[in-house]
């Protein structure tokens, strides 16, 4: 663990200067980085993320992709209006197309959920708290999972939604089987991608979900190999709904009912390290959403003073610090990615299409039992 931390710190120090060199080289400002320096950084990347390549030609190709990605990360760093930091990640040796194929929803185009959005007229007048973070409530949010090479963000996110709602409704911590959603998916696509609503319909068809312990995640799937009938169900849902495409309404529902699934444009996450991403429609098209994540909270933070002044000649003086509202989202790439498996997006600008498909399951407690209210922790 100590070696990993030291490698990460050393890699970050080397990359900071190298990225500027590569950007300058591509703009024609200087001869560019020395090949040895780039190779040294790339070697550290290989060690840090356990990468090896089959032959010299493949090594050379990945080295070139790595250099291009460093330049892209530096460009995003300069253009970001939030507090995000971009740089070397586990995906820095992948092209944008490869990254999209591995971590995007391959079936996302061409079909939308055939269900009406929930009408929020009964919520008018209800105030939204300034902050909300369901991670602070015991037994609500399960540990961050790693989808590995299985394209199953949709299944992991749906499972996380059900787990959190079950915890809020029944004050009982559960961890449900993602593998059941892959093996029993009604469309039979498993690790090839899917939709959040496919996962919820699978849960309804199977009359609930088994536990993660009984039916563990394998990061693979086999068509027509559903084992749902073998195991006791530990959680189930009544139905699912899509919320209105309004961030204020989404925040209100999140604070009062619990975490929500959303589907966003995954593009900027390839180079993301930490901070609040304030995307634009140009660098993160809100109409092209291809990655499902769990929305677990929201808050505000201070902007990074002088960031734009340092990268733009048109602003010679640091701008005053201001508050940046953000969403907190749980990803499915392991706890070593991003902010311990989470990331933050700007709230109020439909960043990366976060309002396009806000979908949540509904878990209802029987009327004969008195319902205990659980509030979102600030």
Verbal overview:
One of its GO terms (molecular function) is cysteine-type peptidase activity. Belongs to the peptidase C1 family. It holds the Pfam family Peptidase_C1. The chain is an alpha+beta fold. It has 2 domains: 2-79, no CATH class; 100-362, Cathepsin B, Chain A. Helix content is 32%, strand content 12%. It is built from 9 helices and 10 strands. It has helices at residues 2-26, 35-49, 56-79, 96-103, 153-170, 178-183, 196-205, 247-257, 307-311; strands at residues 85-86, 132-133, 239-242, 260-264, 272-274, 276-277, 291-302, 323-330, 342-346, 359-362. The strands form 3 sheets. Strands 2, 4, 6, 7, 8 and 9 form a 6-stranded mixed beta sheet that branches. The chain has a two-stranded antiparallel sheet with strand order 1-5. A two-stranded antiparallel sheet has the order 3-10. The protein is globular, with a radius of gyration of 22 Å. The two termini are 32 Å apart.
């Amino acid at each position: 663990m100590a070696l990993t931390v030291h490698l990460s710190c050393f890699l970050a120090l080397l990359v900071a200067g190298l990225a500027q060199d590569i950007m300058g080289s591509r703009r024609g400002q200087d001869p560019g980085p020395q090949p040895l320096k780039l190779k040294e950084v790339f070697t550290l990347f290989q060690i840090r993320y356990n990468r090896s390549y089959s032959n010299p030609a493949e090594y050379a190709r990945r080295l070139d992709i790595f250099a291009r990605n460093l330049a892209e990360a530096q460009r995003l760093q300069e253009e970001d209006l939030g507090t995000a930091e971009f740089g070397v990640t586990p995906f820095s040796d992948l092209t944008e197309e490869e990254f999209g194929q591995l971590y995007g929803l391959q079936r996302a185009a061409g079909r939308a959920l055939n269900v009406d959005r929930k009408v929020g007229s009964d919520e008018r007048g209800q105030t939204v708290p300034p902050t909300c973070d369901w991670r602070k409530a015991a037994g609500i949010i399960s540990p961050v999972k790693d989808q590995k090479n299985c394209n199953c963000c949709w299944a992991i996110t749906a499972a996380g939604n059900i787990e959190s709602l079950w915890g809020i409704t029944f004050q009982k911590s559960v961890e449900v089987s993602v593998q059941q959603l892959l093996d029993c998916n009604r469309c039979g696509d498993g690790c090839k991608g899917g939709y959040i609503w496919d996962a919820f319909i699978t849960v309804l068809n199977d009359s609930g979900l088994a536990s993660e312990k009984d039916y563990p995640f394998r990061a693979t799937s086999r068509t027509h190999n559903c084992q749902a009938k073998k195991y006791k169900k530990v959680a189930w849902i009544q139905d699912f709904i899509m919320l209105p495409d309004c961030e204020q309404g989404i925040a209100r529902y999140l604070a009062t009912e619990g975490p929500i699934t959303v589907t966003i444009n995954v593009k900027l996450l390839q180079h993301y390290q930490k901070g609040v991403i304030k995307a634009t429609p140009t660098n993160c098209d809100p109409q092209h959403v291809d990655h499902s994540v769990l929305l677990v909270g929201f808050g505000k933070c201070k902007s990074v003073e002088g960031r734009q002044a340092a990268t733009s000649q048109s602003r010679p003086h640091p701008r005053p610090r201001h508050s940046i509202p953000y969403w907190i989202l749980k990803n499915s790439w392991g706890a070593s990615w991003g902010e311990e498996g989470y990331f933050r997006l700007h709230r109020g600008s439909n960043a990366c299409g976060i309002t396009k498909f806000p979908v949540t399951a509904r878990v209802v407690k029987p009327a004969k039992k008195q319902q205990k209210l659980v509030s979102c922790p600030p």
